[in-house]
Amino acid sequence: MKNYLFSVSLILVALFSTxxxxxxxxxxxASVSGSVNTFNISDVLQAGTIHLQLISDINGRIIFxxxxxIVGRITAQDGTGGSTLNHNILFADGTAFESENDQAQxxxxxxxxxxxxMETISNFWGTKVFKRxxxxxxxxxxxxxxxxxxxxx
Length: 153
Description:
The chain is mainly β. It contains one helix and ten strands; from the N terminus they run H-E-E-E-E-E-E-E-E-E-E. The protein has one helix at 2-6, and strands at residues 19-22, 28-40, 45-56, 62-77, 82-91, 96-111, 114-121, 124-126, 135-144, 151-152. It has an eight-stranded antiparallel beta barrel.
């Protein structure tokens, strides 16, 4: 159980449509979408790639569309399929994004070592377009540990 909980952090980027306050859009709302693919490095650490896109809810213009690196670390587990995580993300253009105390919960079983997980991210900060961003990001994805695929999306 410990192994699959750490994998949850990689779900961050399976970001489903959500809203953020984007500085570049004069404090307007933006829809967020993207994807994350990571590998489990240890019981509490995952690393991989993230693609993130923000689109203005006002005019449909793309505010941000980049691919970068993501590292997730589990900081606590509740023993019932829930975990708390932190994330560090760095994009190719130099934009950075960090989150703290993300809440993840197993919501389904795929196999004995693969699970569906829902994650909520609301305590985050960053640079450039994320400098004054706020809101809640919801993500749904899959986690898998060894002897299964040992990767997450």
